[in-house]
Amino acid sequence: MASKPLLLAPAGSFSALRAAIDAGADEVYLGGSSFNARINASNFDSEGLIRASELCKKNNVAMHITLNTLIYDKEFASVLEYVSFLMNEVHPDALIVQDLGLIGRIRREFPSANLHASTQMRIHSYLDAEYLRSLGFSRAVLARELPKEDIKRFCESGLETEIFVHGAICVSESGGCLMSSVIGNRSGNRGECAQPCRLPYRSANRYPLSLKDMCLANHIGEIIESGVTSLKIEGRMKAPDYVSTVVSVYRRLLDEQRNATEREMRLLSDAFSRSGFTDGYFVSRINRDMFGIRREEDKKKAIPKMPTSKTERAKRESQSSENLPFDIPARDEEKTLSPAKQKGLVLRFEGRLPSKRFIEKHFQSAARIDIPLQYCCDERFLPYKDKISAIIPRSVFLKELDTVKAQIKKVKESGIKNATVSSFNHLTLCEGMYLHGDYAFNVVNREALAMLENYSLSSVMLSPETDGRFARGSRCALEYIGYGRTPLMYTRTCIIANSEGCKHKDKCISRLVDRTGAVFPIISGHSHTNIIYNSLPSYRLDKKSELKKAGVGLLTLLFTDESEQRMEEVIALASTSEKPNFAYTRR
């Protein structure tokens, strides 16, 4: 049997930290008062972090500090001062990081810092491992939505692998949700998520976005066999009694290398559940059974009191990444398109595909045309193959990999040379093509943009969570959404099927209506995934002069469920400074 994984527990407060240690955690993760993805937890001030470190070292427990939010340019001085304090006075065993720009600065200025790649980095493929290793990461925290086959394949990469085994999961892919940010001005990527997925909507299922909590206590045997390094329990917002109960159960399961009994499952359910638990992502059973809410009967359950026990832990050496590589490539200009050659409008179609009449009228004048990969070779588009860019699916699982590779091969053979990519693994899949970095790279600072420049991207789309005016001077062409409904969630579950039932596996368009009557389009795509879009389109075309001064050369018109009449109206507006006569938002 493979070696026993470590058990990683949440600590949202000092009491929860003590509970995790007493219950047998090998590792704990916690955050300071800022720059972490659970900003509303109690967290730890500077003195508290030092005390926490001392307690962990006394008990031979590794302490990981969360730095897993996006960082704006104006915050870099503060965050680097914080990292200096952590390295010199707290001495954590690892820092959990999301932001590409922060990763680069830490590796240069604090080379001994041991870095773990946050799940917010959207790690979906074993192909990501080589890139993470070259950035100096010693461990990857995989996306919660990965099935067991993909987890096992990633473990074979040799990089330490951490997976979530218990607690809350998001209906949106990890690190890919903009819903709270766009509609509530509370960014999930900044630790401020307002949890719009837990709210009721006007549909047959009143809670079509609310998933049950994950529980993999019945899969411990196969998880151990897969070679996973560490099992992570979610819950920095939870009380110490919850931490004690859940950690105690998983400690026993790991020590005895077995799955949970019915009694142990009841203990976990009594501690916290939402209509029970789900293992749907892990076993690839993605259906309505995954969804649930926190019922009154769930709330009435008393958290069981678990007796604490002394846990024998092996002496743990402090980890360092000082000798790990920081081997980002040099930009190869021969593999890129010059920013000077990338100016104008990008026409992007994520829903209804345009008619032949529309294509003949508008495609020739576009700077680029983005089409989902599976539709690129439609004969209507091939006369404009030099302008077409294939939008690669945001997450590609093992079972889909051969199909996607075949589609990319066909696209290349048809003469299409451009690809719109959103993950490091896409760089491998689309080798030999001109690459355009999508909004899913979450670029909100100049440091992150500089990192991506080295991977020979021809263009990079700036995050919708910025105003698009921070990145002058890039070697990549800068792109920004000038018009379009901001993509709020990319889901591996089919929301359409969960709310009303769907008849097709692709090109299925539906909608979600919230309590206020706002209508959010849902479009089904690759492998029955869904994208949920904002109820109003963002509109920034009247700001194009300001954006141009800031270096933005490409303005994307992102079309989803619009009529062709509306599309043509938007294209016409792009040549003026007028505001539209339809409702819009700036986000």
Question: Can you describe this structure in just a few lines?
Answer:
By secondary structure, the chain is of the alpha/beta class. It contains 19 helices and 23 strands.
Q: How would you portray this structure in words?
A:
The chain is α/β, with parallel strands linked by helices. The longest helix has 17 residues, at 240-256. It starts with 5 loop residues before the first strand and ends in a 14-residue tail after the last helix.
Topology:
Elements: E1 6-10, H1 14-23, E2 27-31, H2 46-58, E3 62-67, H3 76-90, E4 94-97, H4 100-109, E5 115-117, H5 129-134, E6 137-141, H6 148-155, E7 160-167, H7 179-184, E8 213-215, H8 220-226, E9 230-233, H9 240-256, H10 262-271, E10 277-278, H11 280-283, H12 296-299, E11 344-349, H13 356-362, E12 368-372, E13 388-391, H14 398-413, E14 418-421, H15 424-429, E15 434-437, H16 446-453, E16 457-461, E17 477-484, E18 487-491, H17 495-499, E19 509-513, E20 519-524, E21 530-533, E22 538-539, H18 544-549, E23 552-559, H19 564-573
Parallel strand pairs: 1-2, 1-9, 2-3, 3-4, 4-5, 5-6, 6-7, 7-9, 8-10, 11-12, 11-23, 12-13, 13-14, 14-15, 15-16, 16-17, 17-23
Antiparallel strand pairs: 7-8, 17-22, 18-21, 19-20, 20-21
Helix pairs in contact: 1-2, 1-9, 2-3, 4-16, 9-10
Q: Largest beta sheet: what is the strand line-up?
A: 1-2-3-4-5-6-7-9
Count of strand segments: 23
Helix proportion range: 25-40%
User: Structural class given helices, strands, pairing?
Assistant: alpha/beta
Report strand %.
15-25%
